[in-house]
Amino acid sequence: MTICLFTFVDLYSKGLGTLDNLLTKGVAFAAGQGVSEADMLEWRLIDDMAPLRFQANVVLNFARQWPARAAGLPIPADMADGLDVAGYKAAIAEAKAYLGSLKSEQFDGRDATPITFNLGMMEPTLPAGQWLSSFATTNFYFHLSTAYAILRSKGVQIGKPDLFAGGL
Fold first, then answer.
1. Element (H or E) spanning 81, and its range?
2. Which helix (H) or strand (E) holds 71?
3. DSSP letters of 94-162?
């Protein structure tokens, strides 16, 4: 199956816009509740689940790293732990700029290029198109949706349209 890998660049950029919107709304709500931004970033859906900051890190990492892998480019470093909201906003802007610098030609003919990636319990080799369309995008949206769910569970007034805040 041939996939236009470059289409994921725009998809991830829009998702980053959604993350930015969610953080903005979360900060406004938290401030109204007398909750610091630092405490908001530690909000969790349930106690044994990773906090909002982790969800944001994964979204940012997947948005930058998986298109780079698919295009055969150097892999951007993982996001720093412990960013504040301003740091996340800057990281989102940087990630969107990085994605904006990518060109469709960098992805041409790479659908079937094998990529081996360590998942901890296994290290499969799959075609770039399969990694990007299935594994990376599923994880990207899982963590973006979890960030949404964390904020919603705390009472932030967001709805389904906020998942499309980055554009359709």
1. none
2. helix 52-71
3. HHHHHHHH--GGGTTT-TT-EEE---SS---EEEHHHIIIIIIHHHHHHHHHHHHHHHHHTT----GGG
The single-letter DSSP state of residue 163 is G
Q: By CB neighbour count within 10 A (0-12 exposed, 13-18 middle, 19+ buried), where does 58 fall?
A: buried
One-letter amino acid identity for 148?
Y
Residues sharing a CB contact under 8 Å with residue 152, sequence separation 6 or more, in sequence order: 158
Residues of the chain with pLDDT under 50: none
Rounded distance between C-alpha atoms, residue 75 and residue 165, angstroms: 27
Hey, where are the domains in the chain?
A: 7-164
Look up the CATH superfamily of 7-164: dinb family like domain (1.20.120.450)
Q: Indicate the pTM of the whole model.
A: 0.95
